Amino acid sequence: MTTARRIRTTTRRPATSARSLDELLGDFGTRMPRTPPPAPHPPADRLFPYRVSPRGRHRTGHGWAPTLPPLPRYLMTSEQTPVLWPLIAGDGLPPTGAPMGYNVLSGGGFYCDPMGWVLDDAIPVTNPNVFIFGKPGRGKSALVKAFLLRMIRFGHRSLVLGDVKDEYEDICLALDVTPYRIGPGLPGRINPLDVGPLAVDWEAQDRAELHRRIQVVTSRWLTLVRGLVGSQGVPFTPTEERVIHQVLQDLTGWTRAQTRLRDVTVPLVWAALDEPTDDLVRGCRYDSRHHFYDSTRPLRDALGALCEGSLKGMFDTESTYRPNWRAPIQSLSLRALREQGNEAALAIALMCLSSWGQGARELAAPGDRRIVLRDEAWMQTRLGTEAVKTLDANLRLSRTDGDIQLVTYHKPSDPLSAGDEGSQAVQIAKDLLNLADIRILMGQDAKVADELGGLLGLTPMQQQIVTGWAMQEKGRALWMVGDQRYKVQTLLTPLEQQLTYTNEAIAAAP
Question: Which of 134, 209, 476, 490 could be a cystine partner for 101, CB 3.0 to 4.6 Å?
Fold first, then answer.
């Protein structure tokens, strides 16, 4: 028994020599997976139950630092802040009107609604006129065409007063509208001295209404004649104005109290001056017919040049065009005149169409909203002071007529080419820029930066947007809506890209 007991004692291992499973797996470089202990539930009455030191948790991988980093400080203006933090943007415009693209700073859609902006007191816009500036090739024409097309669904129809290069022919044909062509040898005629819709129901009006209408018509005619005569370098003083005013009232029959107005044309005015009646000589307070001839010779020669020059047969007879105001768009094409290369004649034609368009809209029905496009307006303003005054008068009536006057230029200084620096024409041209609270600035060369700052009041950062960012891609523009600024990228549908393509001549070249 003693021997057996000794054998059992020697074969028993001590309890302290046993190895755990973790120790056995540790020999092979691994460990048993462990379940993390459950996190204690924070007290229900504490929003932030745990406090963490500003230096972080003193553990590996918890971002602990022995010293605190210096706190960065920035000093900048409110205009510079959105550049470093672009998500910080002001309130945008309401989503009404035509969707034009997206706001680059906010990423949201950008909508254009000139009439709605005028009616909204929260938006600093007091007139619906729109000026668009852009270097050729930056997408100016595409932006205009997209705006015209998209505003149709909101009840706006378009009137193109002088399509110089037939740029709007494609969208006219797409809308089943044939452009009306005017030019040498063509049958189309536009009478800029047309009475217009104010002649409707003339016999049924009382004397007060007739007096109001004749004053409106005569004022429009005087503005046009002043511009036409001024384009020939002839001064139009109050004396010339009195003579023309008397001639116009005699030709219409107003001085003879006729119940129906007679149509007036530029050749009729010229003929009345070339062979004046005794009543005209006395009414203008000239001593004799010879005195009348000597005093009015420059005026007669200026009107005669318009009747016998390059514009002969275009604006010297009654209008053959009868506008269809229910059509979505109407375009008056001047491409045939442009092909002659006479820039002065083309500018005079634009002035005549501008006056005719104003007269055609003098009795627009309430709610008949129209977008009046004045393309290549720089041609008209280069005719001189009186031509600038004519455009100025047309733009000032937009709020009363309920029309959106859309004017295109290449660069902000284009209107200033109306005369010498410091002249009256240049001063009026500068005031033209204030007749539009909505200005769209597309890509421009860096040398135009000073013009952007001096004429439009842009900051250096905003100038960089126009001369830098907007030049990197077509359709980019800085929108100035009152005193608000927006970086907008215009977006076109595939159909709009086809209708707004204007590089056919370049693409077709070998």
Answer: 490
Q: Is 90 exceeded by the pLDDT of residue 176?
A: yes
Query: pTM to 2 decimals?
Result: 0.75
Query: What is the reported pLDDT for 506?
Result: 53
Which residues are within 8 A (CB) of 395 and not within 5 positions of it... i.e. 6 or more apart?
129, 405, 407, 432, 435, 436
What lies within 8 Å, CB to CB, of 198 at 6+ separation is 213, 216, 217, 359, 362, 363
Residue 230, Cβ density class (10 Å: 0-12 exposed, 13-18 middle, ≥19 buried): buried
Query: Do residue 408 and residue 462 come from a single domain?
Result: yes
Residues 384 and 472 in one domain: yes
Q: For the chain, what is the domain count?
A: 2
Kindly give the pairing relationship between strand 438-442 and strand 130-133.
Answer: parallel
C-alpha distances in angstroms, 283 versus 221, 245, 269, 303? 19, 11, 16, 21
Q: Say which residues have a Cβ less than 8 Å from residue 215's Cβ, sequence separation at least 6.
A: none
Residue 273, amino acid: L
What are the two backbone dihedrals, phi and then psi, of residue 192, each rounded to the nearest 5 degrees?
-65, -15
Q: Report H helices in 253-342.
A: 266-274, 278-283, 289-308, 335-338
* Per-residue pLDDT band at 321 (split at 50, 70, 90): confident
Position 441 pLDDT exceeds 90: yes
**Do 475 and 498 sit in the same domain of this protein?**
yes
Q: What pLDDT, on the 0 to 100 scale, is given for residue 65?
A: 67
Query: How high is the pLDDT of residue 507?
Result: 56
Same structural domain, 203 and 179: no
pLDDT of 124 above 70: yes
Rounded Cα gap, residues 13 and 449, in angstroms: 95
Q: Confidence class of residue 398 from pLDDT cuts 50, 70 and 90?
A: low
Same domain, 399 and 287: no
Kindly state the average pLDDT of the residues 68-91. 69
Q: What is the pLDDT of residues 187-221, one digit of tens each?
A: 888 889 988 888 888 888 888 888 888 998 998 89
Nearest to residue 105, comparing CAs of 415, 490, 485, 495?
Answer: 485
Count of CA atoms in the C-beta half-sphere (13 A) of 463: 17
* 385-403 per-residue burial string, b: 16 or more CB within 10 A, e: under 16: bbbbbbbbbbbeebeebbb
Tokens, residue 278: 């005794």
Residues 6+ positions from 346 with CB-CB distance below 8 Å? 164, 334, 337, 338, 379
Position of tokens 């056995």? Answer: 24
User: What per-residue confidence (pLDDT) applies to 503?
Assistant: 61
In angstroms, the CA 167 to CA 377 distance is 15
Distance CA 456, CA 27 (A): 80
In DSSP terms, which residues pair with 406 in a beta bridge?
Answer: 130, 373
